[in-house]
Structures are given as structure tokens and as C-alpha cells.
Specification:
With about 140 residues, this protein is mostly helical. The protein contains four helices and four strands. Helix 1 packs antiparallel against helix 2 and helix 3 packs antiparallel against helix 4.
């Protein structure tokens, strides 16, 4: 995938997140709270934190979708890729540990199936590998 495609995906997702923010506020306004989605209860207390989180995600998607220049050739990008690679490696280790030891993970009333950790493991290993690969290809801030 090239940068243009990723930006277009970010633009699309920013619309989805914006509609989610509007939906959360609308459901609260018309009095449909408390509500249970995927076993997770939402009530008046969780609206503020959910809205703040979604606004932060929206801000990141809008920034990437409309303002990031391509390609970026700064030494700080290499360090960022190394940090992101390490973070995804830790996430992969958590998924691997859950699979190996059979830990259960419950969100509200929903028990997350183990196969979802397999998906998370594959995705996080790939993202970690890609981040380290691109970071190591950069020498002095250049590809």
C-alpha cells in the first residue's frame, strides 16, 4: 500500500469515527442510555470518556489523512518506527502468552475467544516486523 491509499483510508475512517461521535451523543440526547453493545454497557458516565477517546482518534486520522507529507525523511521518523515496532512486539507477546497459557479475557459480559488472539498475534507480528524493517532501511534519515 502506498501513502496515498493509506491517506484515503484515514479520510474514510475519520468519517466513520465522526459518525460514531454523533451517534453516541444522539443516543444520549434521546434517552436511549444505558445501552449494551457487544456485552459492554454504556451509560451516561461512559459517554464523556468515549467521546474524548473518539475525538482523539478522529484528530489523529484527520491529521494523517490531510496533513502528513510523503515520504518523510527525518531521523525522528526512524526512532518513531523503532518505538512502534517495539510496542507491537510487546502486543504480540501478550497475545502469544494468552494463547500459550489459555488465559481468558472478558470485556463486560463478553468472553473474547482465543481465535481473536491468533488474529491479533499475526497482525501485531506483521506490524512489528514492518516497523523494524522500515526503520532499519533508513540510514541517516533517508531510505
Amino acid at each position: 500500500m502506498n501513502h496515498h491509499t493509506l491517506r484515503e483510508i484515514a479520510k474514510f475512517l475519520s468519517g466513520m469515527v465522526a459518525s460514531k461521535i454523533i451517534t453516541i451523543i444522539w443516543l444520549s440526547w434521546i434517552g436511549l442510555m444505558p445501552l449494551i453493545l457487544i456485552g459492554t454497557p454504556f451509560n451516561e458516565d461512559s459517554i464523556v470518556s468515549a467521546t474524548i477517546f473518539n475525538v482523539a482518534v478522529l484528530a489523529l486520522l484527520v491529521y494523517y489523512g490531510w496533513h502528513v507529507k510523503s515520504p518523510m525523511h527525518s531521523p525522528s521518523e526512524r526512532n518513531l518506527l523503532l518505538v512502534v515496532g517495539a510496542l507491537f512486539l510487546v502486543i504480540a507477546a501478550v497475545h502469544f502468552t494468552r494463547i500459550m497459557f489459555g488465559f481468558s479475557f472478558i470485556l463486560g459480559d463478553f468472553m473474547v475467544p482465543a481465535w481473536l488472539s491468533w488474529c491479533g498475534l499475526v497482525i501485531s507480528v506483521y506490524l512489528s516486523y514492518s516497523s523494524f524493517h522500515f526503520a532499519l532501511r533508513m540510514k541517516g534519515g533517508r531510505k
